Amino acid sequence: MSGSDGIRQVRLVAHFPGVNNTTVWSDPRSRSQIDFSSFEELARTAERGRFDYFFLAEGLRLREHQGRIHDLDVVGRPDTLTVLAALSAVTANLGLAGTLSTTYNEPYELSRQLATLDHLSGGRAAWNAVTSSDAFTGENFRRGGYLDHTDRYERAASFVRAVRAFWDAAGTGRAAVHRDRFFDIEAVPTLPRSPQGRPVVIQAGDSPQGRDFAAAGADVVFSRHGGFEAGRAFYDDVHRRLAAHGRGDDELLILPGVTYVLGDTPAEAEERARAIRYQQVSGATAIRFVEQVWGRDLSEYDPEGPLPDVEPDLERVLTQGTAAARSTDRAALVERWRARAASEKLGIRDLVVEESARQTFVGTPEAVAGEIVRHVAERASDGFVLVPHLTPGGLDDFVDRVVPLLQERGALRADYTPGATLRENLGLAPRP
Questions:
Q1: Do 183 and 319 belong to one domain?
Q2: Cα separation, 134 vs 145, whole angstroms
Q3: Residues near 28 by Cβ (< 8 Å), separated by ≥ 6?
Q4: Do 375 and 346 fall into the same domain?
């Protein structure tokens, strides 16, 4: 969507980072993951910056490593919909998006919960529909186990169709019927039609099947391709898939997750970025990261020393952990890491920093604003999901120093449209 002067509008999303190694937990400015004040502060900052929506991740089970719970996980994995409902009372224009699994929820119940949030918020609800892949999480649920990759996406597509059928039947007094190999449901919705008609649906898959799933019915794609060239390739690929589903280019937004570091000079920004990367990856974190790929206990290794000379245990099945750990070719990954470590003279911690903790936008506020505008103008994205390294104050400097520059360039709204729903703020077509 372009403004009145033809400049493509930047879409901005505030991500509450939750439990991951992006957040610098050791920083004294980091606060609670469960106190409502943390959620409220980040949401209010995003609304002050005229962001489109607040994005909350979800974890359905605490992660474990070597038989122990990750220490940081126990600081809080709150229920998504409860937090978003509370935020609806302290925000007026900001969209409220939650990550909710299609594997471990039921369509009728979730459609009702999201429609309720849409009513409570005046049309600001959004749902990041994700599949859940591992048996480890499945142990928390009655049916246990997990679905293979193909079935996960087929169930997800069926799930989304069912939810939308219930939304569309709202207020009609008629039952919505959805029957296939995954579901056999006939239900009359208990609510009138929600303000948006249908809450906004977000999808985050990156496989060919995930991209097709997004092209078929998502309103927004949460992408991991924040770099310019990778972003443009992903953008073009997903948009090519839209026509096969009878959809136009203006029916889908692509918003990569990114991080940023600002400085008064380029050198200062680079120095800050390097310091943050090393705060994000402690020695213990680096060892755990490598253990998840090796499949072995490496606690005796020095994180400042060379990569382990022992070979990885490729017979061990990894049910959780990093994307690297779940790679289908861990042997090739280990060889690549060894080659890079040797050529660049990197120890374990140095390598993990380079492989895992990299900021997308680093520079002065003017440079960062210019790069954001370029990405959107040249269709490498439609905007960005900002993942701050501090919770909850990590967006403050972006809102104070970059947002005014985007507004001066005409790339970001100066204010919200009164009474607009999230769908309208995003420039998406209304649902009849």
A1: no
A2: 8
A3: none
A4: no
| Rounded Cα–Cα distance for residues 64 and 300 (Å) | 19
> Tell me, what CATH number does 171's domain have?
3.20.20.30
Could you tell me if residue 64 is inside a domain? yes
Residue 149 annotated in ligand binding: yes
Q: Which residues form the domain of 288?
A: 282-356
| Contacts of 24-27 spanning 24+ positions with Cβ under 8 A | 24/276, 24/279, 24/280, 24/389, 24/390, 25/72, 26/279, 26/282, 27/279, 27/390
Q: 176-179 and 53-56: which strand pairing? A: unpaired
Report pTM.
0.89
pLDDT digits (tens, 9 = 90+) for 25-77: 888 898 888 899 999 999 999 999 999 999 998 766 666 666 666 555 555 67
Q: Which residues pair with 65 in a beta bridge?
A: 68
Q: Are strands 11-16 and 53-56 parallel, antiparallel or unpaired?
A: parallel
- DSSP class per residue in 50-85: T-SEEEE---SS--EETTEE-GGGGG----HHHHHH
- The reply to whether 99 sits in an annotated binding site is yes
Return the closest-CA partner of residue 197 out of 259, 123, 142, 260: 123
User: For residue 296, which of 325, 337, 264, 269 has the smallest C-alpha distance?
Assistant: 325
Would you say 292 and 325 are in contact if contact means Cβ atoms under 8 Å apart? yes
